[in-house]
């Protein structure tokens, strides 16, 4: 089955010569969740805006469900729902009227049962007759999602959907995304919260300086690039690593109470056995040994750093 979203050599330049997108290639399958990570100014929002037709590409092609976003804009855009970063809602309008209006903008006939389902799914049904101005920031973000879902899109873009909301509401949003996935909606999520990507994404994309550095299955990415650290806790602090133990894979903790050893989980030999023997031979007494897996945040920082130094 062909990907539901296909981006080929997409470029976006501005009159002053700034190139925001530098030949983006991206394929996303139906029903998956892709988390797009990147620092501020990386091109995340520009990429989404270009795919959705808000910004015009300088060159390249985008198809959604086989529809070219330039040659067949209406059909392509009808398949897309967009939840923007900024909350821009009519403050005096009622929730249900706002959502119904968004559905009508796409030429869809009234469907009260569907709108009720969406509002209930987003815990907005009890607020349906409330004016937007009376809602909390988190509830307003839910209204944005309801508006984006009102015309039954098959591809949903969430641009920093949990920015500025508390942890509890953020986790509620993750559950909403999981429900949408079960309904077969394809979701592209941009986020600054690494734990968000770890919690809900099927694949992780990393973008920096207008270029896609990597798109990979989350578990495979962690297995391929994730490293482990062994922390050898000492019974007595030391001021420096003994000469017999000096290695570029070993460092001393700031307080001198532990030796921290980095190793690759995919290597045939980790070197841990040799290290522990050498520590004992150096006259150091162990208090405890602890291992920890590097997080997706560590992987992300490494990838962005590599991309910036290329």
Automatic annotation (TrEMBL):
Q: Which residue ranges traverse the bilayer?
A: none
- Kindly indicate whether the keyword Transport belongs to this entry: yes
Domain of life according to the entry: Bacteria
Q: Give GO terms: molecular function aspect only.
A: ATP binding; ATP hydrolysis activity
Record-annotated ABC transporter domain positions: 5-234
- Identify the Gene3D superfamilies for this entry: P-loop containing nucleotide triphosphate hydrolases
Fetch the Pfam families from UniProt: ABC_tran
For this UniProt record, give its keywords in alphabetical order, as a comma-separated list.
ATP-binding, Nucleotide-binding, Transport
Full protein name: ABC-2 type transport system ATP-binding protein
């Amino acid at each position: 089955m062909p990907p539901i979203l296909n981006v080929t050599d997409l470029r976006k330049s501005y009159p002053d010569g700034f190139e925001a997108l530098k030949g983006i290639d991206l394929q996303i399958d139906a029903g998956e969740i892709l988390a797009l990570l990147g620092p501020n100014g990386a091109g995340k929002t520009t990429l989404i805006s270009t795919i959705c037709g808000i910004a015009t590409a300088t060159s390249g092609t985008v198809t959604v469900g086989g529809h070219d976003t330039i040659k067949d804009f209406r059909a392509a855009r009808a398949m897309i729902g967009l939840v923007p970063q900024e909350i821009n809602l009519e403050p005096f309008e009622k929730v249900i009227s706002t959502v119904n209006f968004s559905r009508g903008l796409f030429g869809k006939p009234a469907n009260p049962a569907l709108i009720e389902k969406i509002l209930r799914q987003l815990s907005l049904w009890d607020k349906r007759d409330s004016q937007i101005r009376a809602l909390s920031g988190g509830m307003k973000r839910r209204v944005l999602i309801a508006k984006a879902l009102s015309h039954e899109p098959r591809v949903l873009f969430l641009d920093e959907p949990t920015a500025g909301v508390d942890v509890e509401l953020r986790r509620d949003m993750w559950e909403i995304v999981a429900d949408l996935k079960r309904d077969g909606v394809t979701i592209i999520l941009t986020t600054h919260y690494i734990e968000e990507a770890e919690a809900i994404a099927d694949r992780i994309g990393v973008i920096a300086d207008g270029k896609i550095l990597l798109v990979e299955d989350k578990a495979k990415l962690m297995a391929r690039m994730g490293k482990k650290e062994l922390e050898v806790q000492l019974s007595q602090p030391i001021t420096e690593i003994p000469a017999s133990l000096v290695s570029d894979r070993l460092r001393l903790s700031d307080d001198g109470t532990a030796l921290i050893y980095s190793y690759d989980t995919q290597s045939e030999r980790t070197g841990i056995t040799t290290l522990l023997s050498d520590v004992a031979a150096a006259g150091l007494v162990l208090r405890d040994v602890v291992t920890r897996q590097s997080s997706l945040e560590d992987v992300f920082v490494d990838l962005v750093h590599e991309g910036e130094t290329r």
